[in-house]
């Protein structure tokens, strides 16, 4: 049976199609999920894609968090289902309290779009097991509100528990505390990051194919589970 | 119908680059002597029925779960007196309007 990975489309999502494409290239079956869906159609994992859900009104991800689809998603994420939040999806995960902290306006106030070097710090999560700890990858980064913040206690806990999954290399692009680009929950099944691995899965359109590992990682973990 | 105002501000320890940009623009515009600017959000809620303790508790709940992200923001809730009432705060607002 093929592994089914859902991709939620909120009003204002942009990168849902690219996420579906990345899933297909990795060898799984992408399943489009709608923000109004009240169940997850028996998917094995879910990607919350990038974009500007609900126009980023109020705060990025704040309104998407209360979409009907988020209710079963939060429940199943807590039960161990792999969930990846990319960019706006990361913001939704923080607003949903599946991940700690919050994303704030870039410290330089500019929308930034560039290829970004990252260090993989944790290669034991559901979405990063095809990488090795310390590996360097390059994927696109594009956002206006990517500054990761949390109180010092939370940051210390994230570091101590190895829950910083990605760190920016070559200069902090947005004022994120401790150069954090992505984090995971305690169980390692929920991962959120601001950069876009789904845009780096083909040499024709991406700077690298470094992003493919996210999707092959979760596929392998689901098949062997 | 009564109006309840919810003010949401970034916590003091959270960097506010928008407020900083506004502050830095002030001397260029000839406004001297403003050492810091913090930018926030104000929500005006028209509440049906009496604004009693229970209603205010509901507003606080919605502010805490939705209007503010308490990881990075603080909020305050207050009832705004109806226009025309002999409330010093309300007349202060009217006076500022007259000056402008």
UniProtKB/TrEMBL annotation, chain A:
Part of the FGAM synthase complex composed of 1 PurL, 1 PurQ and 2 PurS subunits. HAMAP family: PurQ. Keywords: ATP-binding, Cytoplasm, Glutamine amidotransferase, Hydrolase, Ligase, Nucleotide-binding, Purine biosynthesis. PANTHER family: PHOSPHORIBOSYLFORMYLGLYCINAMIDINE SYNTHASE SUBUNIT PURQ. Pathway: Purine metabolism; IMP biosynthesis via de novo pathway; 5-amino-1-(5-phospho-D-ribosyl)imidazole from N(2)-formyl-N(1)-(5-phospho-D-ribosyl)glycinamide: step 1/2. This is Phosphoribosylformylglycinamidine synthase subunit PurQ. Its EC number is 6.3.5.3, 3.5.1.2. Signal peptide: none annotated. It catalyses: N(2)-formyl-N(1)-(5-phospho-beta-D-ribosyl)glycinamide + L-glutamine + ATP + H2O = 2-formamido-N(1)-(5-O-phospho-beta-D-ribosyl)acetamidine + L-glutamate + ADP + phosphate + H(+); L-glutamine + H2O = L-glutamate + NH4(+). It comes from Streptomyces iconiensis. It is found in: Cytoplasm. The keyword GTP-binding does not apply. The active site is at 87 (nucleophile), 196, 198. InterPro entries: Class_I_gatase-like, PRibForGlyAmidine_synth_PurQ. NCBIfam families: FGAM_synth_I (TIGR01737), PRK03619.1 (NF002957). The gene is purQ. Gene3D superfamilies: 3.40.50.880. Part of the phosphoribosylformylglycinamidine synthase complex involved in the purines biosynthetic pathway. Catalyzes the ATP-dependent conversion of formylglycinamide ribonucleotide (FGAR) and glutamine to yield formylglycinamidine ribonucleotide (FGAM) and glutamate. The FGAM synthase complex is composed of three subunits. PurQ produces an ammonia molecule by converting glutamine to glutamate. PurL transfers the ammonia molecule to FGAR to form FGAM in an ATP-dependent manner. SUPFAM superfamilies: Class I glutamine amidotransferase-like.
Automatic annotation (TrEMBL), chain B:
It catalyses: N(2)-formyl-N(1)-(5-phospho-beta-D-ribosyl)glycinamide + L-glutamine + ATP + H2O = 2-formamido-N(1)-(5-O-phospho-beta-D-ribosyl)acetamidine + L-glutamate + ADP + phosphate + H(+). GO terms for molecular function: phosphoribosylformylglycinamidine synthase activity. Its main location: cytoplasm. It is found in: Cytoplasm. The keyword Cytoplasm applies. Part of the phosphoribosylformylglycinamidine synthase complex involved in the purines biosynthetic pathway. Catalyzes the ATP-dependent conversion of formylglycinamide ribonucleotide (FGAR) and glutamine to yield formylglycinamidine ribonucleotide (FGAM) and glutamate. The FGAM synthase complex is composed of three subunits. PurQ produces an ammonia molecule by converting glutamine to glutamate. PurL transfers the ammonia molecule to FGAR to form FGAM in an ATP-dependent manner. This is Phosphoribosylformylglycinamidine synthase subunit PurS. It comes from Streptomyces iconiensis. The lineage of its organism: Bacteria, Bacillati, Actinomycetota, Actinomycetes, Kitasatosporales. The gene is purS.
